[in-house]
Amino acid sequence: MKTICINCPLGCPLEITEHDGQITVKGNTCNRGRDYGISEYTRPVRTVTTLVRSTDGRVFSVKTSAPVPKDRVFDILERMREIVVPADSAIGDTAEENALGLSVDIIVTGVPAPRQ
Amino acid sequence: MSYDVMVVGGGIVGCAVADRLARLDLSVILLERDDDVASYATRANSGIVHAGYDCEPGTAKARFNVRGNAMMWNLAEELDVPCRKCGSLVVAPEEGLEGLEELKRKADSNGVVTEILDREGTLKKEPNVSDNVAYALYAPEAGVISPYQLAIALADRAVLNGAEVVTEAEVTAISRENNLWRAHTPKGTFDAKYVVNCAGPEAAAVNGFVGEEVYETEYRRGDYFVLDNTEGKNVSTVIFPLPTAAGKGILVAPTADGNVIYGPTSVPTYDGDTAVTAEALDEIRRSVPLTYARPAFNKCIRIYCGVRTVIGHDFIIRKSDRAENFVMACGICSPGLTSAPAIAEYIEELLVSCGMERRPKADAVTVMPRKLRLESLSEERLNTLVKENPAWGKIVCRCEKVTEAEIVEAIHSPVPATTVDAVKRRVRAGMGRCQGGFCATRVMEIISRETGMPLDEIRKGIGHSEIAVLAVKEADYD
Amino acid sequence: MIKKCDVVVIGGGPAGMAAALAADKKGAKVLLVERDGRLGGILNQCIHAGFGLHYFGEELTGPEYAHRFVLEVGKTDIEVLLNTMVLSLSDDRKLTALSPEFGLVHIEAGAVVLAMGCRERTAGAIALAGTRPAGIYTAGMAQKMCNVEGYLVGKRVVILGSGDIGLIMARRMTLEGAKVERVIELMPYSSGLKRNIVQCLEDFGIPIDYSHTVTRVVGKPRMEGLYYAPVGADRKPVLSEEKFIECDCLLLSVGLIPENDLLTDTSVEIASVTSGAVVDERRMTSVKGVFSCGNVLHVHDLVDNVSHEAETAGAAAADYAFGKYSPSAVRYRVNAGKGVRYALPQLLNAGEGEAEIFYRVDNVYRNPKIVVESGGKTLCSKKRPVLAPGEMEKVTLNLTSVTGDVTLRLEM
What we know:
The complex is a heterotrimer of chains A (116), B (478) and C (412).
Chain A: E1 2-4, E2 13-19, E3 22-26, H1 31-42, E4 45-46, E5 49-54, E6 59-64, E7 68-69, H2 73-80, E8 84-85, E9 94-96, E10 106-110
Parallel strand pairs in A: 5-8
Antiparallel strand pairs in A: 1-2, 2-3, 4-7, 5-6, 6-10, 9-10
Chain B: E1 2-8, H1 12-22, E2 28-31, E3 48-49, H2 60-79, E4 83-84, E5 88-92, H3 97-110, E6 115-118, H4 119-125, E7 135-139, E8 143-145, H5 147-160, E9 164-166, E10 173-177, E11 180-185, E12 188-197, H6 203-209, E13 218-227, E14 238-240, E15 251-254, E16 260-263, E17 267-269, H7 278-291, E18 300-310, E19 316-319, E20 326-330, H8 336-354, H9 379-388, E21 395-397, E22 402-403, H10 404-411, H11 420-427, H12 440-451, E23 470-471
Parallel strand pairs in B: 1-2, 1-12, 2-9, 5-14, 12-20
Antiparallel strand pairs in B: 3-8, 4-8, 5-7, 6-7, 10-11, 11-12, 13-16, 13-17, 13-18, 15-16, 19-20, 21-22
Chain C: E1 2-10, H1 14-25, E2 30-33, E3 49-51, E4 60-61, H2 62-74, E5 79-81, E6 85-89, E7 94-99, E8 103-114, E9 118-120, E10 136-138, H3 139-149, E11 151-152, E12 156-160, H4 164-175, E13 179-184, H5 194-201, E14 208-209, E15 212-218, E16 225-230, E17 243-246, E18 249-252, E19 256-258, E20 290-292, H6 303-321, E21 331-336, E22 340-344, E23 347-349, E24 354-361, E25 365-366, E26 369-374, E27 377-383, E28 386-387, E29 393-398, E30 406-411
Helix pairs in contact in C: 1-2, 1-6, 3-4, 4-5
């Protein structure tokens, strides 16, 4: 697998390979780069931030309370289409607990602007 | 529906004609192809009120330009349209004096006041002409006006006087029914006794609908740079180079709204396409320094391109000798904007000569209500307005300082503005240096609130130009 | 109406709120003026995560980061004017503002903090050739349409410029169902953060073409596609290699410009490189009592730095209003030398304590040394593995060691 290290502006091009259960990172300059390469190879995770609709049709921004496996990001997004939050939801409210059984909650992060 | 007069085309000429006729005891309808009046050449030209020195003496262009210039300033005052009689200079290097003298002779035969200035005299009028400028022909009667605001104000006054304006009503055919002309449009059919063809680029085609001459039409693109209004203080007059066969050349001019424009080019185009080309922009970049000493291309906030409709060498304004009660204004290129009021005046005469009855409407509106603009309001007046309507205290377009109240008023104006661009042309929201980056979404919200249209139906301009194309979390993923 | 205060802060985004809070903490009577209907500024539309790691020690989204400051402001006596736009400002710290609640408001302040943020460069500013259809927007406008209004502005998207907002929007549009075809970048490198290149483009297989530009847009009234081409060493497109791509949307992330239009009637000196004011280490401009911070001063890449900078400015503004701060008689200029695009603050007051100098480099440099010199002495010389224009850097100086004008330069 190839990726770019995100730890610093250097942006080392990493090449991660596995032989007999032994993971090797090439191209890194420092140990942080090696650790990053290994985590991206073994269990890459991402925090998902997106929008949900409210009962009055407006959008509220939400996030996962913790990063989820990268390959489940679009499943989370798909699930968010089914969630409707109350129109009076506030920042910090939980829109859904244990989403998709991934042990993360969906947290409201932002509310719409007051109506003008 | 049946009308006395049908005006085909809502450009500057069509709007001027509709405005004039609406003040008579007549029923008038104006049919416009686009989403708003002033949508083609009228919205994308130099906005110059030409003095009329460069038209060939004896031509329709010379006649209507000079008369139009004389009518324009009062008209703008009646309609409350921004304009400035700032004068114009045709600047020339040492060897260009002869050319200026020839222009002066034309000016004299056209009855246009001009004066040849030496460099010193030129600098007094315009301190920023380029170093190689040795002489200039100064025309004090020239100036600038907002061309689209003029056309919109004419259409608005026409509506206040009882005319109807139908947009997105492109005339696709004209038939003869019961001694009336019947226009076929996507908005239905409209019958009228008299037809005035002011269809700009489509004027020849409209002629064809009634068996009139389908003039061979050329289209010539003109590209422009619009500069930030901080440049406005650097340009006091309209600066032309010496004219050539291709036209008046690339000018530097203040706009009536305080910006500066550089342009236009003059490039033949087959289909009237208004796409700006990189070559054209480069041509302007090369040309401006020849006349103007402070080019500021880094202050560009917008580029645009308009298309001139050219038929032969002169305007064609006449009544048809083949089709009854049909009057045409074809090939109205430069100086069409300046000429428009005079063309409308003449078209009224042509219609009368066709038998149209001319009885002034008793209570016709002549002076339009003054539009309130933030910068011209006294503190006391502003505070009273805000108290009555808090929208006067809410600035939506921060670059041009346009309040929500002005936007609401534009949306409900006689020719309503229901697209983002139509609002922009009326009150300048989105015309400034951020080009609507901040205010476009607010303008959309206000249009939506005022008209009841959902946000995803609000369009930039004509056709399918919706800005919001997909509702988040309501769409299907593929 | 007339309002008097010790410190007026213009702009209620992250910079304005932090400045107002810092001034309030010093005991100043603070007026915070915001043109939008709520505090938070652009953060309210930045719903992605990545804010606050430095300032709060945890990763927050934009609205959450803003909300923390909004709550703090709510606990103080800071007077907040919403929907209020400052129309004018003079050197003697008199302002006029327009409010739907009070009409024209005259403000007289002991000190002024400028915190108006920045605006995006537009298609017009880069003289983008072609048609002018629906579908061409700045990335920030698309972000607001998406995250605040709940609508995408395109289904097949190309992004010109790889600034952070452009990269963030590539991911946002993708996550919400649009197809982002590619990102086109004029320079041979991105001005965005590495993290965004990886997590916004690479994660979704969105290609980026460096040293390319959009040559023209086609389609009317809706965008139908665009032509793009590689650029030569002169950054002009090589038209023989022009390619077409079908798309209904072009987002522009081609630069941010501090929004200093309000300063027209003042004598605040503007630095041509940053388009922001020239300031000293306490963020005071060339006009006494007028301070500047956040993106209106210079464009930051992390909001955390904005908050810190604004606290410096807000505290200094309060000190000024109370007569506790005046610039020293001896002031040194901070100059950007070889390889450095700008350094900020541009002025240092002779004195004691520490001063942080922020700088950006003018190209990507591997293994450079950043050297700071003053009065013929080298104050600091640090080797760095890499320096890139997209990442703001800083050095900390001991002011007692500064004995003359300061120069920051790179040594290869």
